[in-house]
Amino acid sequence: MSINITIQTTIHSNIQTVWSAWTTPEDINQWNFASIEWCNPKSTNDLIVGGRFNYRMEAKDASMGFDFEGTYTNIIYNELIEYKLDDNRLVKVEFIIEGDQVIVKESFDCEDENTAEQQKMGWQCILDNFKKHVESK
Question: What's the domain count of the chain?
């Protein structure tokens, strides 16, 4: 049985800035990594239902890397993005406007290689990088 994990952060910005930073390849390259030893040198994003995305994640020392990729299954502009990863795991990202801030809530199915806690920590670190990136704009 697959474990589903939910993480979230509150971003002090408007929904247009948050949405743009989440979906624009040039922005994604600036925040989509879990630690300073990693980077995201290249991203492609076809933000339509049935469209595909590919985020290249690599260790800065070039010792390892992988493609994080999947297909969009549901998009509600400024509210929701759902997608299926190429390994068939499902991910749901909600954008909840609360006053002058946006809560980004991300739920994802665990993979089998790493513990649920490791995955939760890694995805939360990426989400924290996203928050820093948006709030520095």
Answer: 1
User: How do beta strands 101-109 and 90-98 pair?
Assistant: antiparallel
Residues in Cβ contact with 63 at an 8 Å cutoff, skipping those fewer than 6 apart: none
pTM exceeds 0.85 for this model:
yes
For residue 92, the SS3 value is: strand
Instruction: Tell me the three state secondary structure of residue 34.
Output: coil
Dump pLDDT digits (tens) for 35-82: 999 999 999 999 999 999 999 999 999 999 999 999 999 999 999 999
List the CATH number of the domain containing 115: 3.30.530.20
Range of the domain at 94: 4-135
Q: Tell me if 116 sits within 8 A of 5, measured CB to CB.
A: yes
Residue 136, helix vs strand vs coil: coil
DSSP secondary structure string for all residues of 98-121: ETTEEEEEEEEE--SSS-HHHHHH
